Model the fold of this input.
Amino acid sequence: LWAVVNNAGISTFGEVEFTTMNTYKQVSEVNLWGTIRVTKAFLPLIRRAK
Done:
């Protein structure tokens, strides 16, 4: 294993006042925390492959 190409992407659209906080949390859970989890899971494998 030489690299991980890590991409997550969901989106929401609409006016801020009508978008729920739960929707924003879901977007950040996938787009931010999802990529961090995958990176942390595969980083030891990448380091061992050097």
Summary: The longest helix spans residues 21-49.
